[in-house]
């Protein structure tokens, strides 16, 4: 049995975003490492499968064609959430900015919509990343579950998660809340 005093001596170290970025600058982490910083923990991500890459490319292509310069389309790039998280959502639609976010990572206020595509990471995305996004106030997230062949929309963020969760009735007309006049046709998403 561990004494109460010893329990206070041992606790996991949480890396800050700045420390995490310095690991990259020092070559400890490289571009080839599939990792994300989530709540101060460096998370090793599974390899990306072909169905996942196809879905990300398809969605990014549709967003690019249908939304044009009304958004900045970010594909598998980091977003900054506070001092301890630098996740890399599969797709982020961002408010347009003249510098295209060259001066700083996008933060929750910059995000119109996040899309996470899950082939083997459905549970991780649902239980770890979505609560992080909700607590940060990210207005809407779409979770594309490839094995289940479904898209789930999460909106109305709170500290306890998203209050509104549902599947669209028609994949041919999926509309992000931040872009109400821009329905996206995702009919062929699952082949």
Automatic annotation (TrEMBL):
Residues 18-167 form the Putative restriction endonuclease domain. CDD domains: DUF820-like. Coiled coil: none annotated. InterPro entries: Nuclease_put_TT1808 (IPR012296), Restrct_endonuc-II-like (IPR011335), Uma2 (IPR008538). This is Putative restriction endonuclease domain-containing protein. It comes from Thiohalocapsa halophila.
């Amino acid at each position: 049995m561990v004494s109460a005093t010893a329990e206070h001596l041992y606790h996991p170290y949480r890396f800050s975003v700045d420390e995490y970025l310095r690991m990259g600058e020092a070559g400890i982490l490289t571009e080839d490492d599939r990792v994300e910083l989530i709540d101060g923990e460096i998370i090793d991500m599974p390899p990306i499968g072909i169905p996942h890459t196809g879905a990300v490319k398809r969605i990014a292509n549709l967003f690019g064609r249908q939304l044009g310069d009304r958004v900045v389309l970010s594909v598998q790039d980091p977003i900054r959430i506070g001092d301890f998280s630098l996740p890399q959502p599969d797709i982020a639609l961002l408010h347009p900015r003249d510098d295209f976010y060259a001066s700083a990572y996008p933060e929750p206020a910059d995000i119109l919509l996040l899309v996470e595509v899950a082939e083997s990471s459905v549970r991780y995305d649902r239980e770890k990343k979505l609560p992080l996004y909700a607590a940060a106030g990210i207005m809407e997230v779409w979770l594309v579950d490839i094995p289940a062949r479904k898209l789930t929309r999460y909106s109305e963020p709170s500290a306890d998660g998203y209050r509104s969760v549902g599947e669209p009735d028609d994949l041919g007309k999926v509309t992000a809340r931040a872009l109400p006049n821009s329905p996206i046709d995702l009919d062929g998403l699952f082949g």
